[in-house]
Amino acid sequence: MRLETAERRGDPWYSLVLEDDVFYIESEERGARSRSWMFRQLSDAEKCLLLLNREGTSRADALMSRWHRRGLHPRASLSKPDPDNFPGRVSVAVDGEPIDRGWMGATHAILLSHALALSPEQLELELRQDVPFAPGDSSSGEPETGIASPESQADPQLNELVSRWQKWRRIYAYAGQPAHDEPVWESGQLHLRHGYPFPGWTSYIVEAADGGYYVMTATTERRNNPLEGSAGFFTHADDAGKYIIWNIGEDLRLDCRLDPIAWAWEDGGLDVRVHCTPRAEFVSRYELISDPSRYFILRAGGIQPENHLLPLTYDELESQLLDGMPETWRGNHAG
User: Fold this and answer.
1) Three-point CA angle 95, 93, 60, nearest 5°
2) Are 242 and 252 in contact (CB under 8 A)?
3) Residues 6+ apart with CB under 8 A from 38
4) Three-class SS of residue 209?
5) 3-state class of 238 per DSSP?
6) pLDDT greater than 80 at residue 280
7) 84 versus 245: which is more confidently predicted?
8) Do 223 and 200 form a contact (C-beta atoms < 8 A)?
9) Distance (Å, rounded) from C-alpha 37 to C-alpha 49?
10) Residue 81: what pLDDT?
C-alpha cells in the first residue's frame, strides 16, 4: 500500500509504502524502483521521507552535514542482520528498546540515528532553524578569532579543559616546541587550534549536544578548507578534556624522544575498571563500571588505549604524561 509520495523534484523521487506491517521508503529513478530504507514505526519513516524531500536545501544539507561530522548518535547502535545476502545493510537500534527501528545503508544509518532521537515536530523545527556551518563553510572560509565574546558563549563545564590547555601551551614553550593557539569560542563551540592561520593548521573542536560533548578534529593538511571528523562523544566534560590533553601530551613526549604512555596502556588491554561494548563497526563504547552514566564512545574498533583515560583524574593523567620530562616543566611555572 502506497501511503505518501514526496514532492517530486526531478529524479529520484520517493514514496512511503506499507507492506507486511513495516514501512518502506521506495525510490524511483528513470523508471527503476528500489527500497533502501525500512522502518517499523510510521513516525520514523515519515522523518526519513521529510529529510529526503528537503535534500538539496541549504538548511537540510547543513543539518545532515552536522550529523555526519558528529558520527553515530550516542544512544544508537548498528548491526548487520544479514551480512551474507545484504553486506551493505545495517539495522539501527536505540538504547533501552527491545527491537531495532529498521534497516538501511550504513551512511544513511549514521545520519538517521540523529533523526530517530527527534520527534517529527522537533525535526521540522531543526529544518526551519539556521544551522551553524563548520569552519571553512562560511563565505570567507576563515574562522573568527578571539576568545569568548562579552556575551560569552563559553561553557563553564569546559573551564578546566581551557585551564589545562593553557598550561600545556606553556609546557610546549618550555620544551622549545611551537605552542598551541589560544582557545577560541565560535557559535557555542570551543576551538583548540595549532598553527592557525598557516597552512596545515589543525584543531580540536568541542561541542555540547545530546547530553554530553562531541570532540571533533579539523585539519587543513593539503587542503584549502578544513576537513572535520568525529573523534568521539563523552558524557562528561572532563573526559572530553582528558582525551584532548592526552593527545597533545603524547605528541610532546614523542618530540622529546620519550615513549608514549599509550604503549603501556596497549599492553595492559582493557582497564579492569572499564567495560567495553561494540556499538557499530569501528565504534566502541567505554563505560566506567562504578558509574555507568560516565562513558565515552570512540570511532575505533577493538580495545583502544584511550579506555585507560576514564578512571584517571586530570592530575593523574598529567603525572604520567610528564614522567621523564624536566621537573621545571611540571613545577609552579607550568601550573
Assistant:
1) 105
2) no
3) 22, 23, 24, 25, 102, 103, 104
4) strand
5) helix
6) yes
7) 245
8) no
9) 10
10) 86
Residue 249: alpha-carbon gap to chain centroid: 21
Q: Answer with the residue of higher pLDDT: 169 or 142.
A: 169
User: Phi, psi (5° rounding) for residue 20?
Assistant: 55, 40
* Whether the Cβ atoms of residue 146 and residue 152 lie closer than 8 Å to each other: no
Q: Could you identify the residue written with the cell 532521537?
A: 117
Q: If DSSP states are collapsed to H, E and C, what string results for the chain?
A: CEEEECCCCCCCEEEEEEECCEEEEEEEECCEEEEEEEECCHHHHHHHHHHHHHCCCHHHHHHHHHHHHHCCCCCEEEECCCCCCCCCEEEEEECCCCCCCEEEEHHHHHHHHHHHCCCHHHHHHHHHCCCCCCCCCCCCCCCCCCCCCCCCCCCHHHHHHHHHHHHHHHHHHHCCCCCCCCCEEECCEEEEEECCCCCCCEEEEEEEECCEEEEEEEECCCCCCCEEEEEEEECCHHHHHHHHHHHHHHHHHHHCCCCCHHHHHHHHCCCCCEEEEEEECCEEEEEECCEEEEEEEECCCCCCHHHHHCCCCHHHHHHHHCCCCCHHHHCCCCC
Is residue 165 a contact partner of residue 245, using CB atoms and an 8 Å limit?
yes
- Split at pLDDT 50, 70, 90, the class of 258 is very high
What's the pTM? 0.86
